[in-house]
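> @MW can you paste both from yesterday?
MW: sure, first one:
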Amino acid sequence: MKKTILRTCLNMCGFLIIANLPFLTITHLVGIDTFIDSFKHPDSYYYVKNEKIQSMDVKAGYIILEKPTEQGFFVGEGDQILYYSMKDNLQQRTVYQIKCDDGITTYYIVASGTDNYEGPIYEHQIIGKIIGNLKDTIWNNLCLQIWDLSIDHLNAMALFSSS
């Protein structure tokens, strides 16, 4: 009897760990606060396959972005952003300086590993702030799709509410 209960408990724990591995992978990448916030504001986060993006990390297969929304989106110095260039190319760069004159915010950017300062770019060009990069593997693809599906269709916030 005790062996059956122990075996059942071990099977249940193993199942829970395996079922949660995609979520643990995403949580490890973006952090627990961002992971929980993605369920509160599902339209604020998305991922992009890094195919036609002039990227600083050529090994990154997917880029996880936080969209510029009303939920306290902020781009600071040192943040990596994805933006449209004047030639309508998607580019990934690091913000090194921010200026705000007469209500117009201007971002000055730099390519990674160089001292080639570029800019200015403006808020309307920014697609989002990069919060993580993943290699293009089957596991990462599965994790991103499960996360995307769950933040849109799963009422996970009921698990975190105190009422």
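MW: second:
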Amino acid sequence: MAKKHVIEVGDWDERRGRDRVLVENPDHAQLWAYAEVLRDAGYDVATCAGEHPDGHDRCPLLEQERCGLVSGADVVVSTCSMQRGDTLLGVLGSQGSTPIVFEAPQPDFERYANLAEDATLIPMPVTTQALLDAVGRARARAEHPGEAAARILRAVDEGFPHDADDGPTPAA
């Protein structure tokens, strides 16, 4: 039996004093793994598998420029693997309110940095520690804005501290 495609819509439950993270990923195994890692770290987590590749279940953020899960999140974790991922990153970046962690192949970082200069980019494959560090950096950046583009470009030039093996990937 094929797994049903789910795109969550709506709003968050009442705040429980923990940071909220929305995880968007079309790969159900990665979606589940990232959500579990973040829940285990103490975050409230909502998930979204994104748009169905056949065009069903349209993304409310892209179609109506509003998504209760995005606007209620403290951080959005998304991926270049999303249907219309470039467009999604651009919309998230243009709204400028919710910090974004965006996973992508490292050679594409500069292109993605141009779509959302405040995004925290994380190289694929994503490790558990890299995910947690990126979410922490995104939260810190939101609390202390400034120098986002300079940090991203500096990180691209210098390489990332998580290029070495820093633990298993969340989907492993």
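> thanks! The first strand starts at residue 20 and ends at 24.
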